[in-house]
Fold:
Amino acid sequence: MPPLLTVSDLTTTFPSDGRRVPVVDHVSFTIERGEVFALVGESGCGKSMSALSLLRLVPKPGRIDAGSIVLEGRDVLALSVNEMRAVRGFDIAMIFQEPMTSLNPVVPCGAQVVEAIRLHEKVTKAAARERTVALFKRVGIPDPEQRFDAYPHQLSGGLKQRVMIAMALSTHPKLLIADEPTTALDVTIQAQILELLRDLRRDLGMTIILITHDLGVVSELADRVAVMYAGRIVETGRTRDVIDAPLHPYTRGLVRSIPARAPRGVRLHEIAGVVPPPTEWPDGCRFANRCPAVLAYCAERVPPVETRERDHQVWCHAVTAGLLP
Amino acid sequence: MLAYVLRRLLYGVVTVLGVLLFLFILFFSVASPDNMARRAVGEKASPKVIENWKKEHGYDRPLWPWQDPKSNLLFDHFRKALTFEFGKSDADSAPIVERLKAGAGPSLTLTVPLFVLGVLIGVPLSLFVAFFRNTYIDRMGLVLCVVAMSVSILLYIVGAQFLIGKLLKWFPISGFDRSIAVIARFVAMPIVVGLAAELGAEIRLYRTVFVEETSRDYVRTARAKGCGEARVMGRHVLRNALIPVLTNVVIQIPFLFTGALLLESFFGIPGLGSVTVDAIQGNDFSTLRTMVYIGALLFVVAQILTDVSYALVDPRVRLE
Ligand SMILES: Nc1ncnc2c1ncn2[C@@H]1O[C@H](COP(=O)(O)OP(=O)(O)OP(=O)(O)O)[C@@H](O)[C@H]1O
Ligand SMILES: [Mg+2]
Structure:
């Protein structure tokens, strides 16, 4: 069977000073049915923009400039506006990074899920309501009947995110994109939501793109992972391969910052500096100006792909030149 | 909710009493009962006639309670207002209630269409430009709005009277007639002028509200679950944006009854706005008191109405 989703050379740009600056730059990956694929990287490296590109929801004045997105043999970028509407929420559903503000404040929570169902399926309001209450129960919302009529402001952040998850699941999408679903939540709630995603994945065999900047979460949940830096994927492969034997200096830095891996009492390793804004990304390897293993030509030349066993791929001059083990 | 409204009413009473006191102090610091009498009976009237007028209209008493605790103008002022005893005009002795009745019709024929058209044109137009936000349609609209709102209303009035009234002769330059058949001919031009003067600011305000709403996260959620753009605007954005729009609309309603000062006086419409202007010019304290008092009451009502309408449309707002 062909993969569920194939993304090739996806490039999304924003205008700046009369030119178009890519925030997602030639990103390629495939998603197999039933797998959890993680997209990791620091803040501002283009994870959310990649996800929104898949739904063709890049906020204006941004737009997808190049590449292809193929979902079950269908070219997503070639779909009409109406066809795209049918894909959103039905084939691909998304949970957002901002649970506090992602629900419509003046519509009761239940009605928002009912709307999601009835946008795609011809069912009565009563049937949609019944399904919504069952979903609320499934995602662990206590008193689902009462919560159905509650307005978003009456729920905690964790409950709101559960409503969002219920909404995303309501039409049995083929692909669920979870964009940092726990970042905005308290630590204890984070663990609960991750637990819920794990259960859903186990029980429903969901295909999930999990966006996060936490490699700990990746190693717990994901089958495969792509590491993103400054709009590009710098390393991808099976989670075990990438986390146990990271190749790219950026991935190495991220792996060393997983709390459980740092020896007790040792200060957490952090990569010096932050992701620069897209207008200041170098031409060659984007990581050149923060890289501990930088070579003379790194900043000028885009690194080629280096493939190791089990499709473990990395884009790094130092690795290709054999300078890094 | 009830407790809230009662508390707001209490504040309202304080506001109205304050306004009445302020009016009294202000009026009698620029005009004395003697001035008023002279304006009423003529500058050259003999002292006897003046005294008679003051006696007849009750202005022969001292102003302040400390001058005469039993009988003074300040207490009289509050008693008349609070008991809604509007009495007669100090200028021409006509009953003020009659004046209100006569002025309400012309004022409302001007202000109500102005208000309704303002909302019916302003809200859809701003939704339209918001739909085309950041395109040249939107930018052209914005420029037009800014130009329209920077022009003084006096210029609109004079311009319309000259162009439409004098050159084109479509409508009379000014005047009024109560008969239903021709009333539209007289209010058409002031309504157009009023719209031109207010729509720019209104559309700009509503557009900002709509555009701000369209960039909210819940709008992205709506799109992500498969809502079309029309549904996003009509169901999600409109419902949220209506909250600030509605309050801006509701607060205008009570003031429909106070008339439009400038439009009425320039277009010769004998409405309530003109009554107020005439009262100020004629040192007509009893009429002025009535108009200011009614205005203050309407203001208080508008405030409460606004808060209540907020609570009705926004589930996050609870009146406590
Ligand atoms: N509306 C916009 N206009 C211009 N640039 C934008 C816009 N939105 C995002 N960007 C840029 O796109 C880049 C990628 O943003 P994105 O939101 O995808 O990052 P992210 O990886 O999801 O980060 P985070 O972990 O903070 O969510 C950022 O550097 C940001 O500067
Ligand atoms: Mg993000």
Observations:
- The interface with chain A takes residues 134, 215-218, 220-228, 236, 239-240, 243, 313-316 of chain B (CB under 8 Å).
- The first helix of chain B runs from residue 2 to 30.
